[in-house]
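FORM 12-B: Structure-to-Sequence Request
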């Protein structure tokens, strides 16, 4: 799926492509592999790690009795060496095949693999990528043939290496035709690119809860227009989807996986609202160990088999060893709404608007942003100061002075809540911003923790 030219370096002793001088199943698989590589702009360089060998010479595998015994027969020894040489050549033919069919180079019969690697890397730095659009007749399902390609240059001193051709099968049929819906879901989950059949926005919120410990609250915005709703007997609209979340460690290895099937039922007024605005689904994911994670989700609409995916990096700190902050939750108000909030004294909008504002993070100029987060495990809970910065294009455009954190009576001193507001002035330039919050040990001024959240300012 990665766009552009890619290279694979295959270290292998090779494998036979023929049995009794007839192509075997491996040969058929190699043809399919080479065709998929060509369709994906993948060039394969093959390297034989055995180095320069002389299979025709005697070696430790030869039967010594055939050499010095009374029944010594030169013909038997010659046959053994000839067979070994033929096997060696047959194994290398697979390495030659993969390289030549995809436009790469086979580095065989060489004692220095570094030279082959250096040549492959050097070649990868400069190349031409040519393409053309085949006629529709080329992909006629009744014609299952191989289309040969030929590239010529006008300068006779140049040698051209290129892909040999392609089969009369469309990319879609080869790469995705055989996938079941669940396979499509798993492919979207593990792919480095987002599946766009269903529009998703992901914002994972790290929190530490006294009873359950570390947890990631995955806030997932789903564009309801991308889902297929059916009408139930009671008049409600129904949608059903499978959701999978997976955490990957800093080495790319999967850690944990969570899956859930969900049915959404909506009356007509609710249905119209979510079709216009979408909705936010929350998925709590417990985290066993601290560390850096890549958090990925994939969603399958079971009615249409369309798939969407999204991913974010998130750090789960070890709060037993140091002070840390939760992720930042946002809430957005107009000036009038904020006055009503202050008069009412409830401190914010409903949970629904908080979820939308935190996930989408698109705020209009002139509005007010309320931000919330937690300070975990401060060494001196009575001496904590907090600070806020607004950053655009790597430059600080606004900075509040450090302010002592007010701690309410009977507060959990290991989990201190922090809240504040940021006014997006009418003269603020539209664009992407970063909100940074900082917690400082007010006594020493040294120990601190910080957290960031990105958002967009629009007119």
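FORM 12-B RESPONSE
SEQUENCE OUT:
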């Amino acid at each position: 799926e990665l766009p552009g030219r890619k290279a694979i370096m295959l270290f292998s002793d090779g494998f036979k492509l023929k049995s009794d001088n007839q192509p075997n199943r491996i040969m058929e698989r190699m043809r399919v592999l080479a065709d998929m590589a060509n369709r994906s702009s993948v060039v394969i360089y093959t390297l034989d790690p055995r180095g320069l060998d002389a299979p025709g010479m005697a070696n430790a595998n030869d039967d010594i009795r055939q050499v010095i015994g009374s029944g010594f027969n030169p013909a038997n020894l010659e046959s053994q060496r000839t067979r070994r040489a033929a096997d060696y050549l047959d194994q290398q033919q697979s390495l030659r095949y993969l390289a030549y069919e995809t436009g790469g180079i086979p580095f065989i019969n060489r004692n220095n693999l570094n030279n082959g690697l250096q040549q492959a890397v050097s070649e990868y730095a400069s190349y031409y990528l040519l393409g053309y659009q085949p006629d529709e007749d080329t992909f006629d399902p009744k014609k299952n043939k191989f289309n040969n390609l030929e590239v010529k240059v006008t300068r006779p001193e140049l040698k051209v290496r290129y892909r040999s051709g392609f089969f009369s099968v469309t990319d879609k049929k080869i790469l995705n035709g055989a996938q079941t819906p669940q396979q499509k879901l798993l492919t979207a989950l593990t792919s480095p690119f987002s599946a766009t059949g269903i529009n998703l926005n992901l914002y994972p919120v790290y929190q530490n809860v006294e009873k359950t410990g570390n947890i990631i609250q995955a806030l997932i915005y789903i564009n309801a227009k991308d889902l297929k709703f059916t009408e139930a007997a009671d008049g409600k609209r129904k949608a059903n989807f499978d959701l999978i979340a997976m955490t990957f460690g800093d080495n790319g290895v999967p850690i944990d996986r969570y899956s859930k099937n969900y049915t959404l039922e909506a009356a007509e007024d609710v249905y119209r609202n979510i079709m216009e605005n979408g909705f936010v689904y929350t998925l709590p994911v417990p985290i066993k160990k601290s560390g850096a994670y890549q958090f990925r989700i994939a969603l399958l609409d079971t009615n249409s088999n369309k798939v969407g995916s999204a991913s974010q990096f998130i750090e789960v700190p070890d709060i037993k060893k140091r002070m840390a902050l939760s992720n930042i939750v946002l809430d957005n108000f107009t000036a009038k709404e904020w006055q009503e909030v202050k008069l009412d004294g409830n401190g914010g909008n409903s949970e629904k608007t908080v979820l939308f504002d935190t996930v989408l993070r698109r705020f209009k100029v002139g509005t007010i942003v309320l931000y919330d987060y937690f300070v975990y495990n401060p060494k001196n809970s009575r001496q904590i100061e907090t600070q806020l910065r607004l950053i655009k294009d790597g430059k600080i455009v606004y900075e509040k002075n450090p302010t002592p954190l007010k701690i309410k009576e009977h507060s959990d001193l290991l989990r201190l809540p922090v809240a504040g507001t940021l006014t997006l002035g009418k003269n603020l330039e539209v664009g992407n911003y970063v909100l940074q919050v900082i917690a400082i040990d007010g006594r020493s001024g040294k120990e601190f923790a910080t957290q960031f959240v990105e958002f967009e300012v629009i007119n």
